[in-house]
Structure formats: C-alpha cells, structure tokens
Design goal:
By secondary structure, the chain is α/β, with parallel strands linked by helices. The chain contains 16 helices and 8 strands. Strands 3-2-1-4-5-6-7-8 form an 8-stranded mixed sheet, with helices on both faces. Helix 9 links the parallel strand 5 (189-192) and strand 6 (211-216). The two termini are 43 Å apart. The protein binds NADP nicotinamide-adenine-dinucleotide phosphate.
Length: 366
C-alpha cells in the first residue's frame, strides 16, 4: 500500500500546527534523509539538525501550561511511544529502504505525480513524507526542524504529494491557485485553510473535477487540542473525507459540517481562542489584584479553563448545569456571577462571536 504524502503550500503558524499534530501521533518514527546515517536507536528518534522529538514533546507540554497533570500524562504517553519506537530500529531501517518511502531520489525520479491508488489512513505519516513550501525560509525552518522536506516551489509540493493543504493568507490564495492549477490532477485532494475563501472559489480556480475541501482549524491544534471543521466540495467522496479526518484527528476535534457553518466556526473557535485568552488574562489579573503572584495566577487560570472544558466534554452536560452545580446558595460563586451578569459578559461574548462571523462572511464576499 502506498504511503501517504502530505503537502503544505504556506508554512506559517497553522501549517506547522497541523503538521506537528500529524507527526506527534501514530508512530513517531525517525526519518532520515539519504545522507543521514543513524548511529544508534536513539539517533533514530527523529534527530536531525540537532533536534529530537523528545525536545518537541517537552516544549509543547511546556506551552500547554507547564506541569499540569494532563500535560505530564500526555508527555509520558508520547515518550513511551517514542521509546517503543526505539525498539523498532530494524523495522524502521527496512522501512526506509523500501522503495518509494523516505527516499528523496525516489520522490524526484520516478513519477511526475504520486501514484496514490490507495492510502494508508492510519495516521502514520512520517516527516519525510511531509513537504512544505513558502517563498522565504522564515517559517520553513520549523518544518526542517521536524525533519520534513521543504522547498520554495509550490509545484514541487504538488508533484510529491496527494493531500495538499493550502495554508497561505487568504489574499495570497488567488495567485497560488493560478500557479498550481495546471499541475493539479484528479489524484490530488486540495484542502484550503484560508478563512473566507469559499469552496466555489476554490473549485472555479482549479481544474473541473478537482477534489477540494475547506477546513478551519484553530491554534490549539499545535497541542493536539484544536477544533477543526471541514466541508467538502462537490467532487469529494467518503474516502477522502475519512482519510482527511483520520489525518487531522490527532489535531483535536474534527467535525464535518455544511460550508455555511464555516464562518460561524471562525467566530466561535478560530477567533474564539483569543476571547478565551482575554478571559484567562482577566481571571488571572483579578487574582493578582487580590494579592496572588502573576505567574501562579496565570497557571491556575489556565488549569481552571482546561478543567472546566474537560468537564463539559467528558460529562456532556450543558454548561448552565455545570455552572449551577458550582453555586452554593448565598455563596461566593453566585456573588461573582452576579457581577459578570452586571458587566454583560454573556451578551458581550455573543456579540463577539457574531462580529467575527460577520467579518468572516464579509471577507468571503471580496
Ligand atoms: N492563525 C489562525 O489561528 C488561523 C485559524 C484558522 C484559519 N487560519 C487560516 O490559515 C491560513 C494561514 O494562516 P497562518 O496564521 O498560518 O498564516 P502565516 O503564519 O502568516 O503563514 C502564511 C504562510 O504563507 C506563506 N506564503 C506567502 N505567500 C506564499 C505563496 N505565494 N506561496 C506559498 N506560500 C506563501 C508564507 O511564507 P513565508 O513563510 O515566506 O512568510 C507563510 O509561510 C490563513 O489563510 C488563515 O485564514 C488561520
């Protein structure tokens, strides 16, 4: 079965967030460009350009809020996973030798387009099978650090990959579509992340029959806790959606929805992350005002949001029910909630979602 090759045209924040999530799941295998010789099983743990997956996992857990128990557990699980991979050096080595996998020369010399009759859809995408392009090296370095392949040529990404994410800013996308259209084949699955660029625009800009999807991820994809909505174009079937969902599931929640929900998702979740940060900041500053050191207050604010979110997801309860469970009659919480009501928190947040959704719609009309 052919290995899946995933491409990113545009290598900025969202592209690297999605790529990192893809790489941190499934099997974390060492991938070595042909010139790189692994000397020990440890060298095979994704070390390249002085980088180890351990470092990536550690830094991501730190980003997640330092030492909260969930982060430690996740790091532990991931490390165990990496450890188990070190026992499969032989397997990995033979894998790297197998035709068409992990060999730059194969990718460049065999076919103009990848032969992808069927894909491995178990989330097992190795860094060597991820390609990213961007005009400058500014963001490509992140991909190089992950041992992915990089190029300044968007067409090279298309030549080497079947699943191609378009991850440039929306205003750049028309130029990119024009550039890549002649190289897009029926084998390709093109997935745009660009806010406000409709499936209709994408389908019009690419050859008739192209399989096109839109996704709107959010930044927490980088810590595998994102929320992604995907919508399919008219030529996309169940197989592509299933494979894409499996590919993206490591990034967090991934739900298919009608395209009309995409702008709402931008207002709720894409932009929503920023509202939550603002709330977290205010929460912590309240504690600082009352005398708690800022660092501790930030950490506890983050953990409070994480815990509250987890309870919502794990119990399936309506947030109003969970909130009311915290309210002792005449107690601290109800006094605080009264203040939030006086400040119009709920109406303000609803207005924020509405404003961001409308803005996304406006951008889509341009
Ligand atoms: N950020 C979010 O939270 C978020 C959420 C949902 C959706 N999105 C969408 O995701 C997309 C990417 O956002 P981002 O925040 O990742 O943007 P970003 O960090 O600014 O990255 C944009 C990337 O596009 C590259 N680029 C520019 N012109 C190009 C061209 N002609 N060909 C190929 N690549 C080109 C840039 O190259 P250089 O590296 O050389 O600058 C950069 O790597 C946007 O369309 C946005 O609407 C973002």
């Amino acid at each position: 079965m052919e290995k899946m090759r995933v491409g990113f045209i545009g290598a900025g924040k969202m592209a690297s967030a999605v790529a990192q999530a893809i790489l941190l799941t499934g099997r974390i295998r060492s991938t070595t460009p042909s010139s790189f010789e692994a000397k020990s099983p440890q060298d095979n743990l994704g070390r390249y350009h002085g980088f180890s997956h351990r470092k990536l996992l550690r830094s991501q857990t730190e980003q997640m809020g330092a030492h909260h128990p969930g982060g430690q557990l996740r790091l532990f699980r991931s490390q165990n996973h990496v450890e188990s991979q070190s026992q499969t050096k032989q397997d990995t080595a033979s894998h790297l030798r197998s035709p068409g996998i992990g060999s730059t020369s194969y990718a460049r010399s065999t076919a103009t387009y990848p032969k992808m009759k069927c894909w491995r859809s178990d989330g097992d995408v190795q860094p060597v099978n991820i390609f990213a392009s961007a005009p400058s090296n500014r963001n490509l370095e992140k991909f190089q650090t992950l041992s992915c392949r990089t190029t300044h040529s968007n067409l090279e990404v298309l030549e080497n990959c079947t699943f191609v994410f378009l991850a440039t800013k929306p205003h750049v996308l028309p130029t990119v579509l024009e550039e890549i259209a002649p190289a897009v084949t029926p084998e390709h699955v093109v997935i745009s992340m660009a806010a406000g660029v409709t499936l209709e625009t994408l389908e019009e800009g690419l050859p008739a029959g192209t399989k096109v999807l839109r996704i709107i991820p959010n930044l927490p994809c980088v810590v595998q806790s994102g929320a992604i909505i995907l919508s399919r174009g008219s030529c996309v079937g169940e197989n592509e959606v299933d494979v894409l969902k499996k590919l993206l599931s490591p990034s967090g929640l991934c739900e298919e929805a009608p395209e009309s929900y995409i702008d709402i998702h931008t207002g709720l979740s894409g932009s929503g992350v920023a509202y939550v940060y603002m709330f977290a900041e205010a929460l912590a500053e309240g504690a600082v005002k009352m005398g708690m050191p800022g660092q501790l207050a930030n950490k506890i604010a983050a953990q409070t949001l994480l815990g509250a979110a987890k309870m919502m997801l794990e119990t399936g309860e309506h947030p109003a029910a969970l909130r009311s469970a915290v309210c002792t009659p005449g107690g601290t919480t109800i006094h605080a909630l009264h203040e939030l009501e006086k400040g119009g928190l709920r109406a303000t947040v609803m207005n924020a979602v509405e404003a961001a959704t409308n803005r996304a719609r406006e951008m889509g009309k341009r």
